[in-house]
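TASK: fixed-backbone design
INPUT:
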């Protein structure tokens, strides 16, 4: 009977666990909420945004079609260098025909829209609801007609539902209704203030998780490498190869820069005023 002493360092093991956790869970994936076939119904309360009081929503530009996830565009979002946009613009300058110009569509960014919300399912933590342009427009229109919608005491929740496709259609749709019943963000005012104060600046979080220039260049190189491997046609230009790939081009949306109006010093006062 011998006792073995492995000299395990519990601190090191614990550190390892927290490292694994941090790598696997991005802050974005914890904060972004989608209504789709995997999460068909939500009751959401729009939240004021201390980082952008006059326009609480975010527009974020992603390059789809290159990887099986959206790559944040450094150029559209932050005015920084983007290898995908640079590549596209270089080809665009030399494009002769409409066909060639059309083939560049998959390399334009697509915009996704986000609103700070409280999900009535968990009712504790501010999240960001990711929307398409159509749904975003609908939400804005509701707010224009009824600005009190977002009020922490006199406001209303939104009932959001994913309706699966019918009659051979490919995509389902999202229906947004305003709950007829007025409701408080929370019964407890302090609680409501905490929820609002916990709304993070989405762009700050996304920027931390955005791939750097080398990584994006790498994605682009991989994309064309896979393309070459699967394509045996002779002398096809990169652009023509692209057409053959039948990449599902997301609708190209004109993107705009937004100015962010933040005055951190007045946040507490602003939040208090919301309840006045
Ligand atoms: Zn870009």
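OUTPUT:
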């Amino acid at each position: 009977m011998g006792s073995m002493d492995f000299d395990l360092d519990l601190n090191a093991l614990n550190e390892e666990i927290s490292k694994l956790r941090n790598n696997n869970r991005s802050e974005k994936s914890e904060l972004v909420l989608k209504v789709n076939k995997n999460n068909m119904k939500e009751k959401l309360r729009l939240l004021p945004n201390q980082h952008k009081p006059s326009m609480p929503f975010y527009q974020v530009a992603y390059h789809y079609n290159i990887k099986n996830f959206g790559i944040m565009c450094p150029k559209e979002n932050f005015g920084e260098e983007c290898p995908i946009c640079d590549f596209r613009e270089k080809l665009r300058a030399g494009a002769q025909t409409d066909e060639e110009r059309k083939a560049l569509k998959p390399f334009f960014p697509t915009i996704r829209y986000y609103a700070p919300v409280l999900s009535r399912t968990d009712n504790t933590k501010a999240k960001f609801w990711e929307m398409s342009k159509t749904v975003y427009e609908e939400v804005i229109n509701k707010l224009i007609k009824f600005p009190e919608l977002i009020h922490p005491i006199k406001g209303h929740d939104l009932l959001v539902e994913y309706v699966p496709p019918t009659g051979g259609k490919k995509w389902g749709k999202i229906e947004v209704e305003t709950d007829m019943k007025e409701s408080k963000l929370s019964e407890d005012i302090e609680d409501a203030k905490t929820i609002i104060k916990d709304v993070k600046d989405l762009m700050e979080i996304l920027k931390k998780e955005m791939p750097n220039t080398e990584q994006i260049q790498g994605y682009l190189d991989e994309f064309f490498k896979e393309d070459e491997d699967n394509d045996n046609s002779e002398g096809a230009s990169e652009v023509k190869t692209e057409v053959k790939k039948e990449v599902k081009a997301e609708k190209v949306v004109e993107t705009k820069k937004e100015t962010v109006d933040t005055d951190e010093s007045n946040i507490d006062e602003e939040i208090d005023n919301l309840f006045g």
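COMMENT: The CA atoms of residues 193 and 272 lie 8 Å apart.
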